[in-house]
Structure of Cyclic nucleotide-binding protein:
Amino acid sequence: MQTGSSLSSAPCYLSDNNPEILNVQAAGAQQALVNSLSRVFGIHLSNNPTSPEHLFLSDLSRLFHQRRVDTEHSLERHDAPWEHVYLIQYGILRLFRESPSGKTAVHHFFTEGDMVWPVFGRSRTARNTLCLTSVTPATLWVADFTAFRSTLQKQGEGVWNGFALALTEELAELTSMREFRKQTMSARERYLLLLEEYPELVKRVPDNQLASWLGVVPATFSRIKSALKPEHK
């Protein structure tokens, strides 16, 4: 029988202390954070812990602490400066604006692996109009935004500018495309694209929030969803 670390062992063997089984320990929380940051910044980590890239990510990781929140927990509110950076380990966050009457417009959903921070200068002041709330129970890595930006700027102005520009462009592209679809596609067509492009969000996000994101009233969303159910069983 072939053995080796490249092969998986049946779960029932794990309690037998078989000497041929290699027990690989899961990465610690801090190392998992460093790995997540490396993906955010597009840095390939080498095995050398003294490399400049590894030292940079290690320094950055020290700014973060882990936080667990329940569903519909308010993380950032309008009319107050946005103060934190969030790296999502588990869960979904909702970025939205809310009118004085309580009506909301959902702008974006963030999921596992995403980093969320105050992209727009206005959102870092008391004139902030954006809110950030958990859609599901979430496990987050949280850091002070000012300290986070300062650490990146110390690496050279190009590091912060490159990081900030990448996310700003991504959000701008998604926003403009969603607006284009609102103007040129029917609600049914937009719902079908939602099913195709974001199947996990459809499973995990409440319908009323998805309706707001699509730009339709909940009753219309529910009617389209019910009509299409037989086609997507």
